[in-house]
Amino acid sequence: MNIGSVSLRDVPESDIERALALACLVFHESPDDERREQQQRTLSGCLRIGAYDGEELVGFAAAHPFTVSVPGGGDLSCPGLSYVSVAPTHRRRGVLSAMMAELFARCAGQGAPLAALWASEASIYGRFGFGPGTYGATVEIDSRRALALRISPDERPLHLLDTDSVPAVLAPYFETTRGPRAGRHARTQAWWREQWLTRKDEEDEDLSPPRVVTLGDPLAGYAIYRTKSGDWARDVPGLVSVEELEADTPEGAAALWRYLADIDLTGTVRAHGRPLDDPLLLFAADRDQVGVKSVEPALWVRLVDVRAALAARAWAAPVDVVLAVRDARLPANAGTFRLIASPDGFSYAPTDDAPDLSLEARDLATVYMAATPVAALVRAGLVAEHTQGAASMLDAALRTELVPHTGDTF
Ligand SMILES: CC(=O)SCCNC(=O)CCNC(=O)[C@H](O)C(C)(C)COP(=O)(O)OP(=O)(O)OC[C@H]1O[C@@H](n2cnc3c(N)ncnc32)[C@H](O)[C@@H]1OP(=O)(O)O
């Protein structure tokens, strides 16, 4: 790829400040000192690719050293791409494309079968083979009246947890939620502190520091939330902004939602990025009171090594299909392959047989976590089904008990 006078190299620690300055420029941000220091610490632990024009840093991309849960409870190395920035003076000449090629090469070098990101604009990353692997819903509760429930909430005591104790108390609990739900990152203690417990909310500085409420001892659930007082003169109620809520049982979840809805001087509970199968949406007695405001793609996934990625996930039912895969950016994935998989075995090998399904790598990424069925992509005209029933057979094999979900943004 010809990017003129620009060349790629690793960004040394001493250039992290310059990389952050570039990111601030392109994302129109001016973080305070506390946030800037936190970003420096985070970037210090990342793979950092820079595009230099002479000595000028004109492009930057970082990769967090994440692992992510995949269907069946396995954990795969999955670099999390972030801070992708190209200087306005150097756009649309292939700098991002070159950095992406370099990142894929590094993933392959590290034996990482997946890569993932959160997209600033959904139109950018499909061409690089990323597909929306998980989704999140924004759910809002009108809490000016008591939350109406069809089940009885768990009556065990609730406790407010000191934020210093959060990583130690919540980390083992959160870890148990990752196996059943694909798409969840392993969290280090530092990640808990830097991403979940920051004093200020990045999007809304009027929100309080995070509060953490736990249910039961031993722990049976928790919620992380922030609050904001209302503007009663303008009839704007106080807000409870829920960042995460996990519970062992529906009754436990009901207790936590009821607690959040009962907080005095607030009238709205808003939860971002909820799993699409959140039981609240079923056990709420009044769906006029509990609404889904939007559903958005969350984690965009790339199968860097299709065979290794498919081999690492579980298969819920037997499948035997021939896939014709197109992958312009990573040609090693392209070709015609017979996928034979079941709960007991897996093989994926080149074949000369006629394909049952033809699809692009980005579409394979879209169905990998099972948030979107193959049959839906066939109906959308994106996947070609040459053998009737092939998409349904593949969907039955890809199926997961719980809808995949990603809570961590990066
Ligand atoms: C994971 C994350 O960090 S998401 C954050 C992404 N960063 C931003 O949004 C910050 C502001 N934007 C930028 O810094 C840059 O414009 C970038 C990084 C989005 C693009 O960088 P560039 O070097 O201009 O991209 P490059 O020239 O390699 O273009 C690659 C392809 O993407 C397309 N593309 C680039 N930007 C966009 C865009 N904003 N919307 C749609 N398509 C785009 C190009 O047309 C090109 O398409 P082609 O391969 O079909 O010809």
Textual characterization of the structure:
The protein is an alpha+beta fold and 410 residues long. It has three domains: 6-112, Gcn5-related N-acetyltransferase (GNAT) (Aminopeptidase), CATH 3.40.630; 136-297, 3-Layer(aba) Sandwich (Aminopeptidase), CATH 3.40.630.30; 304-398, Nonspecific Lipid-transfer Protein, Chain A. It is 26% helix and 30% strand. The structure holds acetyl coenzyme *A. Acetyl coenzyme *A binds at residues 26-27, 81-86, 91-97, 117, 119-121, 123-124, 127.
Write down the overall geometry.
Answer: globular
Helix content: 25-40%
Q: How many domains would you count in the coordinates? A: 3
Q: Count of helical segments?
A: 11
Task: State the low-pLDDT regions, or none.
Answer: none
CATH topology name of the largest domain, in short, is Aminopeptidase
- Which CATH-level-2 architecture of the largest domain? 3-Layer(aba) Sandwich
Distance between the termini: 28 Å
Radius of gyration: 23 Å
Major beta sheet, strand line-up: 1-2-3-6-7-16-8
The structure class reads alpha+beta
CATH class placement of the largest domain = Alpha Beta
Average pLDDT taken over every residue: 96
Distinct small molecules bound, one entry per kind:
acetyl coenzyme *A
